[in-house]
Amino acid sequence: MKLTEIILFGGTAEGRELAGFLGKNNINSIVSVVSSYGGSLVSDYPSLKVRTGILPEEDMRQLFKTEMPDLIIDATHPYAASISSTIKTVSTDMSIDTISIYREGSSSEGYICFDSLDEMISYLNTRGKGKTIYSTLGAKASDGLSKIHDYEKRVFTRILPLEKSLHMAIEAGLSPGNITCMQGPFSEELNEAMFRHTGAEILLTKDSGKAGGFPEKVKAAEKLGMEVLILRRPETNPGITVEEAEDLILKRVRDK
């Protein structure tokens, strides 16, 4: 017996937008997010069920087997390559249709880009000595940031307001006074105020696109004369936009 029509992965802005679309169209769906905080941001509809927590491959297989969805939607973060790979593997093995949501990137022209965090840290330890650094790479980058010379004094980081994220940053040795826990995206003005307050000279960022507040972030940094370092996105298969996904979903519903 089919319990669920669609399983949607993603606590992203795109994921929340699609969850609202599914709810408004009364499509029985499960929205899978990592944290309870991410779950609290999903709109409340009778046709939506929200599950929270990391989903290992075997648990994912069991979920798909139990729910028997018609469609899997991967709306995870562009940098969440591991979970996207697992979704693709499991859905392919079980012959379930899958679509990935594409988040348009931003131009990196004029900025210094790196393929890995290790490369970025190496650059900072040779070319960025003594400069104050503001990281918006997220809590998972904390261990890498702790490899920067004098990181306790000159590295500031902005992470999600989650207990797990704060624990990761503190466990890595980052100074509690240099940690900001806030949910973005942020305006150019707020970014500028944060950068100015810390005296930051270098911004570390992902290419999170318009949905992730990338333009506002780099504009604020440029206004203050900061150097901008970008961690490139992992190589992934191209996906479709939220609007294209909504059209596809409605067509599938009509054709059933």
TrEMBL record:
<dbReference type="GO" id="GO:0016994">
    <property type="term" value="F:precorrin-6A reductase activity"/>
</dbReference>
<protein>
    <submittedName>
        <fullName>Precorrin-6A reductase</fullName>
        <ecNumber>1.3.1.54</ecNumber>
    </submittedName>
</protein>
<keyword id="KW-0169">Cobalamin biosynthesis</keyword>
<comment type="pathway">
    <text>Cofactor biosynthesis; adenosylcobalamin biosynthesis.</text>
</comment>
<dbReference type="InterPro" id="IPR003723">
    <property type="entry name" value="Precorrin-6x_reduct"/>
</dbReference>
<dbReference type="Pfam" id="PF02571">
    <property type="entry name" value="CbiJ"/>
</dbReference>
<keyword id="KW-0560">Oxidoreductase</keyword>
<dbReference type="GO" id="GO:0009236">
    <property type="term" value="P:cobalamin biosynthetic process"/>
</dbReference>
